[in-house]
Amino acid sequence: SFAFTDEAGEVVYPLGDSPGGGVIFTADGHMSLDFMAGGRAPFAADDILGGTPDEQAAAARSFVAFGGPYIIEDGAVLIDVKHSLHPNWAGHAHKRFFQVSGDSLSLRTPQPIHLQGKLRSGEARFERL
């Protein structure tokens, strides 16, 4: 799941109720996360760097991705973001609180972030396959 809550308690699911994606944390200290909305429309052409401007915009609006080296510190993962679909994140450190329970991993923003014009607290949940 990929959910965000504003100060009034309203919960939004910016990638819908059935997003796909995953997260990888390697033993040598690198991570990568990606989420995409379910049911994304394919491009008319099969060119991986092609697509009309509208197709490209819709694809970018329905996808979240970032990654880089990480360390674990005080119940949080600190990520030195090296690559991100959102260009403003690359080159900046991001902190996420985490909780592991069985085959589930939860990553939470430590403070609200800007999403769809509001400050919202976010949580991403993953299940091991």
Tell me the structural class: mainly beta
Oligomer kind: single chain
**Number of helical elements:** 1
Low-pLDDT parts are: none
- The total of beta strands comes to 11
Query: Which shape, going by the Cα principal axes?
Result: globular
SSE string: EEEEHEEEEEEE
Provide the gyration radius in Å: 15 Å
Q: Report how far apart the termini are.
A: 14 Å
Helix content: under 10%
Write the layout of secondary structure elements.
Blueprint: E1 2-6, E2 11-12, E3 20-25, E4 30-36, H1 53-61, E5 63-73, E6 76-80, E7 83-84, E8 93-101, E9 104-108, E10 113-115, E11 118-127
Keywords:
129 residues, eleven-stranded antiparallel sheet, mainly beta
Describe this protein's structure.
With 129 residues, the chain is mainly beta. The protein is built from 1 helix and 11 strands, in the order ββββαβββββββ. It is 7% helix and 50% strand. The relative contact order is 0.20. A hairpin with a 2-residue loop joins strand 10 (113-115) and strand 11 (118-127). The chain starts with a strand and ends with a strand.
How is this structure best summarized?
Helices cover 7% and strands 50% of the residues. By secondary structure, the protein is mainly beta. Strands 1, 2, 3, 4, 5, 6, 7, 8, 9, 10 and 11 form an eleven-stranded antiparallel beta sheet that branches.
